[in-house]
């Protein structure tokens, strides 16, 4: 594995902070119990959501960008690691209500920090069991397809994962490993059907980066994935807006009807109804009740 200064752990490169893999392997009774144990330990380390799926070459980056030479460089993982553990960390609901703001930037930063803590801890736990594991965040592969395959949520029109428990308000991490594990199945709770009739993220986007029509394989520019039929966000328009305003954005996350505090049973009930034929009514009600409106950052301090 490459390990020089031309690296950004967690953003363009996997983590290398772990100790070596233990020389003796702890025997695994079966893949199901091993998966249960990993999820239990991951939750104990602080994971909000955790699922497991199979390695899939289609979602792996073929090359990386070298900050030092502004050229491409090869990916780092060259071992055979057939399993991917996907972890989601929720961002603070009230801070995301202030998007765009420094407070919401802190929600993003804290989400990444929690992600790093869980990914690093669980990676080391697996290595201590005698199995190979590499922790990864935004680097190495596309996280969303893995998260969908691992049953953490559905794909939304805003181009992000929508989870049942936190909507799109999550940060993702993943661990590649050869620890034998059983896999989770993708889930469906009506996101596609709601996105078909909802345009809140599209209307809220200040640079019209979110598509209006049906999922398609049309791409906007070289930054998009080719050959996949889906709602494709113009990432270059989106990121140009971030750089122009010197901050991240996430308005699409704030306004999404799935961005709710699901510790509240009424919101859980409404989410379940949104998965039925009542979705149009729920969407209307969401707007009527003023969800998605921006909370002024100064009001957060006194709420
Ligand atoms: S983050 Fe902002 S600019 Fe980017 S797609 Fe979402 S709303 Fe648009
Ligand atoms: S705002 Fe509406 S269309 Fe956009 S992702 Fe959320 S539910 Fe789907």
Summarize the structure.
Helices cover 35% and strands 12% of the residues. The chain is an alpha+beta fold.
Strand order of the largest sheet: 1-4-8-5
Mean pLDDT: 94
> Which structural category fits the helices and strands?
alpha+beta
Helical content class: 25-40%
Strand segment tally: 8
The main β sheet shows up as: 4 strands, antiparallel
Bulk shape: globular
Rg estimate, integer Å: 20 Å
**How many H/I helical runs?**
11
Query: Which stretches are low in confidence, meaning pLDDT under 50 for 5 or more residues running?
Result: none
Ions, cofactors and other ligands present here are: iron/sulfur cluster
Distance between the termini: 49 Å
What does the model show?
This protein has a domain at about 30-175. Helix 1 crosses helix 3. A hairpin with a 6-residue loop joins strand 2 (about 65) and strand 3. The protein contains 11 helices and 8 strands. The chain is globular, with a radius of gyration of 20 Å. By secondary structure, the protein is an alpha+beta fold. The chain has a 4-stranded antiparallel sheet, with helices on both faces. The longest helix is centred in the middle third of the chain and has 27 residues, at about 100-130. About 35% of the residues lie in helices and about 10% in strands.
């Amino acid at each position: 594995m490459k390990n020089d200064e031309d690296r950004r752990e967690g953003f363009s490169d996997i983590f290398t902070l772990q100790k070596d893999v233990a020389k003796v392997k702890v025997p695994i009774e079966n893949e199901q119990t091993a998966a249960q144990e990993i999820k239990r330990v991951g939750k104990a380390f602080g994971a909000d959501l955790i699922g497991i799926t199979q390695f899939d070459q289609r979602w792996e980056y073929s090359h990386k960008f070298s900050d030092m030479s502004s050229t491409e460089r090869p990916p780092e993982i060259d071992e055979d690691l057939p399993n991917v553990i996907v972890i989601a960390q929720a961002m603070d609901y009230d801070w995301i209500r202030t998007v765009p703001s420094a407070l919401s930037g802190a929600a993003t930063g804290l989400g990444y920090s929690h992600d790093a803590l869980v990914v690093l801890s669980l990676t080391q736990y697996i290595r201590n069991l005698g199995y190979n594991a590499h922790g990864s965040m935004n680097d190495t592969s596309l996280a969303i397809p893995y998260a969908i395959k691992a049953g953490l949520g559905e794909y939304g029109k805003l181009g992000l994962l929508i989870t049942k428990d936190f909507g799109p308000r999550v940060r993702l991490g993943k661990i590649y490993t050869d620890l034998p594990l059983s896999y989770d199945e993708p889930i469906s709770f009506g996101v596609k059907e709601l996105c078909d009739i909802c345009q809140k993220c599209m209307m809220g986007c200040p640079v019209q980066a979110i598509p209006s029509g049906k999922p398609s394989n049309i791409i906007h520019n070289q930054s998009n994935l080719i050959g996949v039929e889906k709602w494709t966000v113009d990432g270059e328009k989106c990121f140009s807006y971030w750089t122009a305003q010197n901050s991240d954005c996430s308005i699409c996350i704030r306004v999404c009807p799935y961005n709710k505090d699901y510790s509240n049973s009424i919101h859980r009930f409404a989410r379940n109804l949104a998965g039925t034929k009542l979705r149009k009514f729920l969407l209307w009600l969401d707007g009527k009740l003023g969800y998605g409106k921006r909370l002024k950052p100064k009001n957060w301090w006194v709420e």
